[in-house]
Amino acid sequence: MLKIRLRRMGSTHSPFYRVVVSDSRVPPTGRFVDTLGTYDPGTSPSSVRLDVDRAQAWIDKGARPSPTVKRLLVKARVSAEA
Description:
Blueprint: E1 2-11, E2 14-23, E3 34-40, E4 47-50, H1 52-60, E5 64-65, H2 67-75
């Protein structure tokens, strides 16, 4: 099953995250199928950049977002239901 989840990037004590589509059996730092955007909680306010069309296309194909990504998608006004 494909999941839309966060992949931690950046240096120690200053992380940012990439929103990626990957197989649920692969570790979060492992291979991924597609990159949908970035999330940086270190800025004030936190910055979220998502390609909403590609995110919706992956959800329509059956990819399930993680709980955190689901909240980010709701903020970006993407329907998180397949």
